[in-house]
Amino acid sequence: MQWFDVLLHVDRHLNEWAGAMGPWLYVVLFLIVFAETGFVVTPFLPGDSLLFAIGALSNTENSVIHVGVVGVVLSVAAVLGDAANYSIGKAVGPRIFTSSSSRLLNKDHLLKAQAFYEKHGKKTIVIARFVPIVRTFAPFVAGIGRMHYPTFALYNVGGGLFWVWSLLLLGYACAQNEFVKKNFGVVTIGIVVLSVLPIVVEVLRAKASSRNK
Questions:
Q1: What are the backbone angles phi and psi of residue 99, rounded to the nearest 5°?
Q2: Are 29 and 81 in contact (CB under 8 A)?
Q3: What are residue 205's phi and psi, to 5 degrees?
Q4: What is the largest CA-CA distance in the chain?
Q5: Contact 58/172 with Cβ under 8 angstroms?
Q6: What are the b/e assignments for 40-62, b being 16+ CB within 10 Å?
Q7: How many domains are there within the chain?
Q8: Rounded CA separation 105/89 (Å)
Q9: For residues 56 and 149, what is the distance between their CA atoms, to the nearest angstrom?
Q10: Cβ(175)–Cβ(59) below 8 Å
Q11: pTM, 2 dp
Q12: Which tens digits make up the pLDDT trace of 165-210?
């Protein structure tokens, strides 16, 4: 329930953290985004909703967060995270994924990311930024497939910048909207639901296709 409360009231918790940590909040946010994109064992960390909430918080009175500074910090975290994940995938491959029941090293998550990658090709590195779980596993799969690194780096930097800045600025622009201010928790959960929607659609299509065979 504590994690659900954090998700539902991201703005309130960010305010609390900002007041308690001051500039150290940038370090914490960097580590969260880096871990969420850089390690296949942490796909549960907040991504889209966190960026939106940070952008919104930066456009509130007396905010200690500067949208430009946090945008640069999190862009670096996102790019370095994917780069680290690619290197890990290239080094260890799928050998560590042996169970479909494991919460941290779930083989099903890897297979879904591989299917997503096969469907969308190199664009997956950009598209996956906006899809939870796939976002964490896509660079890992690219490393397993030994995708040409300069090509990966190009998509990584472009996708990372687009992901971070689009959601930050969306939150910044919506911060003063009355509906958003009164229903911030619902809005952030809505963002998560929309993010997960592509996975749900793919799963339903796969099930429908298997029934028709």
A1: -130, 140
A2: no
A3: -65, -40
A4: 60
A5: yes
A6: beebebbbbbbbbbbbbbbbbee
A7: 1
A8: 13
A9: 35
A10: yes
A11: 0.76
A12: 999 999 999 888 888 777 777 777 777 677 666 656 655 665 666 6
Highest mean pLDDT among 59-68, 106-115, 121-130, 194-203: 59-68
Q: For residue 140, which of 105, 180, 165, 174 has the smallest C-alpha distance?
A: 105
Could you tell me the CA-to-CA distances from 47 to 26, 99, 108, 159 in Å, in that order? 15, 25, 21, 14
Domain of 81, in residue numbers: 2-212
Containing 209, the helix (H) or strand (E) segment is helix 184-212
Residue type, position 162, single letter: F
At 100, the pLDDT band (50, 70, 90 cuts) reads: low
The structure tokens listed for 84 are 């680290």
Residues 86, 142 contacting (CB under 8 angstroms): yes
Non-local (6+) Cβ contacts of 52 within 8 A are 167, 168, 170, 171, 174, 187, 188, 191
